């Protein structure tokens, strides 16, 4: 299963202006009925569609994930903060006969490293902590059209920052216990403080029980059937634990009776020196100059490797979403590279065709087209979605230079 993406499927649906119930596989015999001439529903998996010829939401999610990876390769940073873990070789002087004195540089400052990706937000381990389990959901019809469309959880009494709270399907609603907890998060959501605590709301069509999407054949999912939606959800705190920032490792040295695969590890503290570029400083976790541990570390040879956990990526906007230009770039790039339609209704697929059209086409029976030299040189491709995505991020690329 594809890990959760930074840009959600719901945000792609909003960009396409797709009927939310149909996009999430819901229909009935009333206002949301499906005719044989046009089926605008999107299935969970491609093999559930007629003749296995349509893309499912799982395949669309992979397209979004691929687009995010391509943009990160081009930009030099993730489109939004993402939890990471990296192991790097410890930087050494060019002259191997010399070495730094522990974690201190020749200028008396902490040694520094450059992490992959830029815009480092925090250093530590991603952690999920239960806040309240089995919280009842209150379903509401916010727009008065006769369909319940919004789930509300709370108010929950907590002093935690609203940005750290997330809602997770209860364990009984999941179908694969081996998946990471974030796989079962309901996104996007709105968290706001009230006089008695924190309240969380989300769209009903995002909360179909994950088990109901499984199977060889698609099931009929009626949005007015309460059994396909959960009664309760779990509220978790998703945060970064600063006490688990990383480790430095020393390989064992050749000596009689020593283990060639043995290593010695020590916890470290990591300071953010330049967040945009990703430069951090590293020192032992126990930095008291009087401690024996500190003294013993200074007396050791330089470490061989350093392992760091951190959160890095372009900052989200004030609503907790991927910045608008980057969000659109991800969606356009994902659409441009989809090779099949996503539903059985031709009219609904026209907007996809618009962004998938190859602007570099110069031959054909119907028309001829040309593309500007500048647009032709973009690194993504020549489809309209490729060019539009590149135009949104062209000026954001982070590059490195060396002064001589």
Beta fraction: 15-25%
Basic shape: globular
State the end-to-end CA separation: 48 Å
Helix content: 10-25%
Main sheet, how many strands, which sense, barrel? 7 strands, antiparallel
N-to-C order of helices and strands: HHHEEEEEEEEEEEEEHEHHHH
Let me know the average pLDDT. Answer: 83
Q: How many beta-strand segments?
A: 14
How does the helix and strand content classify structurally?
alpha+beta
Describe the structure.
The protein has 404 residues and is α+β, with helices and mostly antiparallel strands. It folds into four domains: 1-75, no CATH class; 82-124 and 242-312, no CATH class; 127-240, no CATH class; 357-404, no CATH class. 19% of the residues lie in helices and 24% in strands. The protein is built from eight helices and 14 strands. The chain has helices spanning 9-16, 20-23, 57-75, 292-298, 324-336, 346-356, 373-376, 384-393, and strands spanning 82-89, 111-114, 120-123, 125-136, 138-140, 150-156, 165-169, 190-194, 197-203, 232-241, 246-251, 263-274, 279-284, 305-312. Strands 1, 2, 3, 11, 12, 13 and 14 form a seven-stranded antiparallel sheet that branches. A four-stranded antiparallel sheet has the order 5-6-9-8, with no helix packed on it. Strands 4-10-7 form a three-stranded antiparallel sheet, with no helix packed on it. Strand 8 (190-194) and strand 9 (197-203) form a beta hairpin. Helix 3 packs across helix 5 (324-336) and helix 5 runs antiparallel to helix 8 (384-393). The chain is globular and about 80 Å long. The two termini are 48 Å apart. 29% of the residues are buried. The mean pLDDT is 83.
């Amino acid at each position: 299963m594809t890990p959760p993406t930074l840009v959600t499927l719901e945000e792609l649906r909003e960009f396409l202006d797709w009927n939310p119930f149909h996009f999430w596989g819901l229909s009935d015999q009333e206002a949301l009925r499906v005719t044989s001439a046009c089926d605008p529903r999107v299935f969970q998996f491609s093999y559930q569609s007629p003749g296995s010829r349509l893309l499912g939401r799982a395949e669309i999610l992979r397209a979004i994930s691929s687009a995010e990876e391509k943009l990160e390769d081009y930009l030099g940073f993730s489109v939004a903060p993402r939890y990471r873990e990296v192991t790097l070789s410890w930087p050494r002087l060019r002259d191997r006969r010399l070495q730094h004195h522990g974690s201190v540089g020749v200028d008396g400052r902490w040694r520094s490293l450059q992490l992959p990706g830029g815009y480092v937000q925090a250093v530590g381990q991603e952690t999920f902590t239960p806040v309240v389990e089995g919280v009842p959901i209150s379903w509401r019809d916010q727009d008065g059209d006769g369909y319940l469309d919004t789930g509300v959880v709370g108010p929950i009494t907590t002093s935690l920052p609203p940005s750290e709270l997330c809602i997770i399907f209860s364990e009984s609603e999941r179908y694969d216990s081996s998946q990471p907890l974030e796989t079962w998060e309901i996104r996007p959501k709105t968290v706001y403080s009230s006089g008695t605590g924190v309240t969380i709301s989300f769209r009903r069509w995002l909360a179909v029980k994950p088990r109901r999407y499984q199977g060889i054949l698609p099931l009929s999912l009626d949005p007015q059937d309460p059994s396909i939606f959960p009664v309760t959800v779990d509220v978790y705190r998703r945060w970064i634990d600063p006490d688990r920032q990383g480790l430095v490792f020393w390989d064992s040295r050749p000596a009689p009776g020593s283990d060639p695969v043995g290593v010695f590890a020590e916890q470290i503290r990591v300071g953010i020196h330049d967040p945009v570029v990703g430069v951090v400083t590293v020192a032992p976790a126990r930095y008291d100059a009087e401690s024996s541990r500190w003294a013993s570390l200074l007396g050791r040879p330089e470490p061989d490797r350093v392992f760091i956990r951190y959160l890095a990526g372009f900052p989200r906007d004030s609503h907790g979403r991927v910045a608008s230009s980057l969000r659109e770039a991800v969606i356009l790039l994902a659409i441009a590279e989809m090779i099949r339609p996503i539903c059985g209704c031709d009219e609904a697929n026209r907007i996809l065709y618009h962004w998938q059209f190859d602007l570099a086409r110069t031959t054909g029976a119907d028309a001829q087209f040309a593309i500007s030299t500048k647009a032709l040189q973009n690194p993504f491709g020549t489809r309209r979605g490729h060019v539009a995505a590149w135009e949104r991020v062209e000026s954001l690329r982070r590059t490195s230079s060396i002064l001589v």
